[in-house]
Amino acid sequence: MxxxxxxxxxxxxxxxxxxxxxxxxxxxxxxxxxxxxSLLQLLVYAGMQIPVGLMVDRLGTKKVLTLxxxxxxxxxxxxxxxxxxxxxxxxxxxxxxxDAMTFIAVLRLGTRWFPARRGPLTAQLAGLAGMxxxxxxxxxxxxxxxxxGWTAAFAGSAVAGLVVLVPxxxxxxxxxxxxxxxxxxxxxxxxxxDGFVRFVRRQIRASWSEPGTRxxxxxxxxxxxPAMVFLLLWGMPFLVEAQGLSRGxxxxxxxxxxxxxxxxxLVYGQVVGRRPGARIxxxxxxxxxxxxFWGAVLAHPGRAPLWLLITLCxxxxxxxxxxxxxxxxxxxxxxxxxxxxxxxxxxxxxxxASMTTLLAVGILLDAxxxxxxxxxxxxxxxxxxxxxxxxxxxPRALExxxxxxxxxxxxxxxxxxxxxxAGREAG
Length: 427
Hints:
The chain is mainly alpha-helical. It has one domain: Growth Hormone, Chain: A, CATH 1.20.1250. Helix content is 78%, strand content 0%. It contains 17 helices and no strands. It has helices at residues 2-14, 20-27, 31-59, 61-81, 85-100, 103-113, 119-148, 150-171, 193-208, 211-242, 247-274, 279-299, 306-316, 319-330, 339-368, 372-375, 378-406. Mean pLDDT is 85; it is low at 413-427.
């Protein structure tokens, strides 16, 4: 049920990616103003990650997911009915706020219902379900939008939010029956504002002090954003306007990114679960391949051949699974009562990078007369920054992980018994 909520949130999040050109016509805006839709949505999303992590640690999963579902459904419906650019912006901000409450809460569910050794795979499966939501946007919402129009398509899709909200409220439990998941204990004087502020500072400071949390953030920052920028807004205009493809062919290539993500997510989850030492090579290898083929497409004189665009989209599918590796550094570095906060910090990385790139591309397109080659080259700048930070943090984070494994420093989370019936495994 938690994953179903995240699935719908991703449908709403990515719905603008197949409607970018229609949005520009509907609200009579240029590239920079169009980018502001996704930019504001991601700004709200990224800004909410630490508050959401704190909420999950204090309130539990069900309450946070319920609030998130209400907000993103209201945002999608508001976007459908907005008569002006300003109201549409406000609706996307509301949607981003609700969307921000889903993924961290779903990760928390995974840590409660499954053994720790299943963490990488359950996280990848949650991400895979989210990409299935992206697939629905591309394959279902796009033709519906062209067939019935803006208001009917977006208002009709908002019904999905109500569909997942009902079972969420009625049936979801934070943990297996008979097991109450530990939550962050309230600080002394928590009823007073200064007590709550101290609690927030303590949670954030303790999570950030772990090199594994910071490494997780930078892995997420460096790996996720190229595919996010491509799918969320600029992929369709680039393929249609710069590469001369039809909307149908461009939509098929966006679908390929999603299908590649779903396939590689299963592979990455299995590999990382069995061989934790593969985390950094997988992450950096994905960054390198993305940079090579992104550069090849942009450097190709004239329009790139279709085979090269297909290869790029297949490679972009690895960005999402690689970004999930960031959580596999943050998770073992923090105790259960800080998992939400640490995951929130990690999850900020890719969305900050995506937000920065979306804005830069929009500004450069307006400044250069829609020169996509120049505008999309901003990807390389952020990749270089992220790789530098990963290489700097990697030794210390892995050193602390090794020390914990050997018992020379305390483990952040003592092993907990999994109740009978929870997290069953074949064999």
